[in-house]
Amino acid sequence: MAAVLFDFSGTLFRVETTESWLRAVLAGAGHTLPEPELTRTARALEAAGALPGGVEPEEIPADLAELWAVRDQSAELHRAAYTGLSRRVALPDAGLYDALYDRHMTPAAWTPYPDSARVLRTLRDRGVGVGVVSNIGWDLRPVFREHGLDACVDAYVLSYEHGVQKPDPRLFSVACEALGADPRRVLMVGDNRAADGGAAALGCRVHFVDHLPTEHRPDGLLPVLDLVV
């Protein structure tokens, strides 16, 4: 393989829990909730799918369905979709909805999987090109820099910067071109079979990992090193 493309959320990094997310934002805004209410609110936000990169919504409200389908094509659409979901849940201050969205874009909200650094650095040392291809509405580069992994990535291809989202093959094509790699010699690694599987249309090989908490997936990326020969 000449290059490996990785998804971001659920593949290389995992977002914090919904409860941690809510606690951080409440603390930052100077709000407190009784523990039972905080727990209930976090559960309601999780059911709504309000945390980007977290659990998928149990149900997409009818008035958000069209927006949800194209949410990753721009920063504005992404914010509108997720704050639209969070507003289904009552919070003590209307400003908290945007604060929640802003929190998920910070490096503090993300943790790399235990084997991410090892895999990325090994690929770099082998001279294998590495790209990150993500359906996202914000710039994730600071997350990689904060965790010391930016030097391992040769190209970032983010849906909101191109107005195209996975599984559209055009996004994977941009990544392959950026790496100067023939798609037939590229491996795409992701956790979403529908979205990340779109790379197969170009002739890329596709490998899937499970979107699990970091403590439950300590070595899920290591097989990638055996696939790149």
TrEMBL record:
<dbReference type="InterPro" id="IPR023214">
    <property type="entry name" value="HAD_sf"/>
</dbReference>
<dbReference type="Pfam" id="PF00702">
    <property type="entry name" value="Hydrolase"/>
</dbReference>
<keyword id="KW-0378">Hydrolase</keyword>
<protein>
    <submittedName>
        <fullName>HAD-IA family hydrolase</fullName>
    </submittedName>
</protein>
<dbReference type="GO" id="GO:0016787">
    <property type="term" value="F:hydrolase activity"/>
</dbReference>
<dbReference type="InterPro" id="IPR006439">
    <property type="entry name" value="HAD-SF_hydro_IA"/>
</dbReference>
<dbReference type="InterPro" id="IPR036412">
    <property type="entry name" value="HAD-like_sf"/>
</dbReference>
